[in-house]
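Hey, quick one: can you model this chain's 3D structure?
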Amino acid sequence: MELIYESTRNADEKVTASQAILKGLANDGGLFVPSKIPALAVDIDELAKMTYQETAYAVMSKFLTDFTEEELKNCIDAAYDSKFDTKEIAPLVSVDNAYYLELFHGSTIAFKDMALSILPHLLITAARKNQVKNEIVILTATSGDTGKAALAGFADVEGTKIIVFYPKHGVSPIQEKQMVTQKGKNTFVIGINGNFDEAQTGVKKMFSDKKLAEMMEEGGYQFSSANSINIGRLVPQIVYYVYAYAKLYAKGEISKGEKINFVVPTGNFGNILAAFYAKQMGIPIAKLICASNENKVLYDFFSTGIYDKNREFLLTSSPSMDILISSNLERLIYWITGNHAKQNSELMQSLSKEGKYEITKKMKEQLSDFYGNYTTEKQTEQVIHKLYQKTGYVLDTHTAVAAGVYAKYREETRDTAKTVIVSTASPFKFTRSVMNSIDKEKYDSMTDFELVDELSRLSKTSVPAAVEEIRNAEICHKTVCDSEEMEDIVKKILNIV
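Sure thing. Here's the predicted structure for all 497 residues.
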């Protein structure tokens, strides 16, 4: 039976899975969500024996129902191959009374690889299915990791161009160098003098600009998105939550049906939403622990029921979470309204006009699956330092935020359920922040790549290929603009002025 997708802001806008992937955003600016969350319908004993690729098919086939078995398996096999440096794809490591789900073994050493390795294949397959003749322009804003992972996925993919906007002074040096050294005739990287929210708002504005869409059509182009607002990004993320649970069971770490917690460092809310969808599919998950940095808009939301972006935007050592507008939260809001598009649309209009909204008491009661908290910059440093001193295991800053929040959760609740901390990036991506946390006095004067080599020695791990290849790489992208110039830049790239 085919699963239909609908807009969170207009119940009448309904599309197939492949159409939702192609469009990225709904015509009204809403996000596409499945009309229902399908049951997994595979017994845990069977799941426990599956490879990552087999698990991916078991999960994704339930959501992408207009893809044939051959099409979907071809996409999965092309995505989860030797570009990952471990056969497991997403290994689980037991450290200090928690399990770390390492999602950074792909080609750009961040969790975005898990979905962005497959998105180009899904998108090209979707274009063929829908007889698309236009060239597809991937338009994306990034807070640091999506950009490089999307660029790597789409570089030189025929029939596509990819344009990435990033906050010029809001990403780590390694993140920036990964993006600006990206090769590929169809790749374009632009720094903006502003923050991620401004970049994301500019991209959303272009998606909903009807006049621009007409100009694109005349030029033989159409937009799609590689951000987690695209359902083609979200569905593959559900897979590793199912896989992690099955592997814990396979190893005898949990019994059949035993509930576990997941702790997710959270910015745009897509990653933790995927965990929520996994729970709705039938995976025994108890708490979804939403970890924020000092930009704690989500912590405040879960505490009060008020989402308020009217606050100072802080640049932190976990830049991929430096976000005040968590776009994917809209999908959860739509869920707790009872799929009431009009009510959700009114809340999103309030966010757009006033910078905030408040959910009802009844809606807040439906958020009991979630627990929110945050760590300060100082606490994040302490988590990295203490865990390294105690175990020799080195966390990146985002995973440290999650570990810090998990410690607060345990202290507050005394919950001893088995818990998986989602490790979203390699420490090599944030070497300066990580090494300064371990010993600032010793490492502060080193260059970025001296720190890379020292981290390799300390952690007893090889420097990832993703970092080694940019050590002496040529800068290919040098354009910087103000946020209000973003549309002009896109028109110039596409020659549709």
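One thing worth noting: The chain is about 45% helix and 15% strand.
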